[in-house]
Design a protein that fits this description.
The structure is a single chain. The longest helix has 25 residues, at 4-28. The protein has two domains: 36-91, 5' to 3' exonuclease, C-terminal subdomain (DNA polymerase, domain 1); 104-343, P-loop containing nucleotide triphosphate hydrolases (Rossmann fold, 3-Layer(aba) Sandwich), CATH 3.40.50. A nine-stranded mixed sheet has the order 5-4-6-7-3-10-11-12-13, with helices on both faces. The chain has a two-stranded antiparallel sheet with strand order 1-2. A two-stranded antiparallel sheet has the order 8-9. It is of the alpha/beta class. It is 43% helix and 18% strand. Helix 8 (143-153) packs across helix 9 (178-187).
């Protein structure tokens, strides 16, 4: 005779099976990629306005304020608020535990500098994605040469220290030289024409143009370009030239701060490495020690994840000193510049 208890257990087992089957189907079913057009109150016309302003994804909407979105897209503040709340809900913005964050950090890739010494200074593997690496120093210290080397090495496979991607080079001082890229590529045994085709170069003529180019990079990524490195040489040249004197210092810093925040957001969202060079000045208040001081003050200092000071050393060497890092001690090392770009010896033919 079957008891009521047996029937309940049997029913429970069947429900458990159904539940497991539904969970399995849910796991197997690919999640739909949410877009800006899925937000309430956002139509095709509004989408186009947001894209014209450089907003291509949900994160771009989620981090905005209602008034900012309202002014940008021509929406009422109430509609803008609902769209922002929906974007934040879809993006699941909030806290996560340390283990989850640790798993997410596994997405980070590294681009070798070509010098084992310099790689070790930066943690062992080179310049990392989702970060801003800043190099400052006087002219001839190797800032641009490091940028050229990284732009070439980004194209290498991951197991050879590259990111298997393309580079963007924002040139603000007329420093980009295709012939130098060809020399580095040839020295590494790569096809120089193919290497050059995978580096997108833009000459920025003022700070507004420099800022606009960041939106262009976002647009290129949206169109399928596998960009893994952004080089800006140099970061502060236009801001320094256009905003002169103490009276314009606050305006300059505010504009520079916003630009750096957008740069960091792009790096994190798209898993891109950002390498920027910075100009220097002599600090007249420095009585002892090296008076060399980077431009941009604390704004640039806080925005940079890794900050390196480059200077000329003995016998044609360059000295790199790690000034700031979230996880590495202050240290310094030497490297050389040769036919292969940044290397560990002065022959220009250092082994990988």
């Amino acid at each position: 005779m079957v008891s009521v208890k047996d029937i309940k257990e049997e029913v429970g087992k069947e429900e458990e099976k159904k539940k497991s089957k539904k969970d399995k189907e849910k796991d197997e079913k690919p999640e739909k990629e949410m877009k800006i057009s899925d937000l309430p109150g956002i139509g095709p016309g509004t989408c186009q306005k947001l894209e014209d302003a450089g907003i291509y994804d949900l994160m771009g909407v989620a981090v905005m304020g209602p008034k900012e979105l309202s002014d940008l897209a021509g929406l009422g503040e109430a509609v803008a608020r609902k769209a922002i709340q929906a974007a934040r809900k879809m993006m699941n913005l909030g806290f996560q535990d340390g283990m989850e964050f640790s798993e997410k950090r596994k997405e980070v890739t590294f681009i070798t500098t070509g010098s084992k010494n310099l790689d070790i200074l930066l943690g062992g593997k080179g310049v990392e994605t989702k970060s801003i690496t800043e190099a400052y120093g006087a002219f001839g210290s190797g800032k641009s040469q490091l940028g050229f080397t990284l732009a070439v090495r980004t194209q290498l496979p991951v197991d050879l220290g590259g990111a298997n991607g393309k580079s963007v080079f924002v040139d603000t001082e007329g420093t980009f030289r295709p012939e130098r890229i060809r020399q580095i590529a040839t020295g590494m045994g790569l096809n120089p024409d193919n290497v050059l085709k995978n580096i997108f170069v833009a000459r920025a003529f003022n700070s507004d143009h420099q800022i606009l180019l960041l939106d262009k990079v976002t647009e290129m990524i949206k169109n399928g370009e596998i960009i893994k490195l952004i080089v800006i040489d140099s970061l502060t040249a236009h801001f320094r030239a256009e905003f002169s004197g103490r009276g314009q210092l606050a305006d300059r810093q505010q504009k520079l701060n916003k630009y750096l925040h957008n740069l960091m957001k792009l790096a994190e969202q798209c898993n891109i490495a950002v390498y920027v060079t910075n100009q220097v000045m002599a600090n007249p208040g420095m009585m002892f020690g090296d008076p060399t001081t980077p431009i941009g003050g604390n704004i640039v200092g806080h925005a940079s994840t890794y900050r390196i000071y480059l200077r000329r050393g003995k016998k044609g060497s360059r000295v790199a000193k790690l000034i700031d890092s979230p996880n590495l001690p202050e240290n310094e090392t030497i490297f050389f510049l040769g036919a292969k770009g940044v290397t560990d010896d002065d022959s220009g033919n250092a082994e990988e």
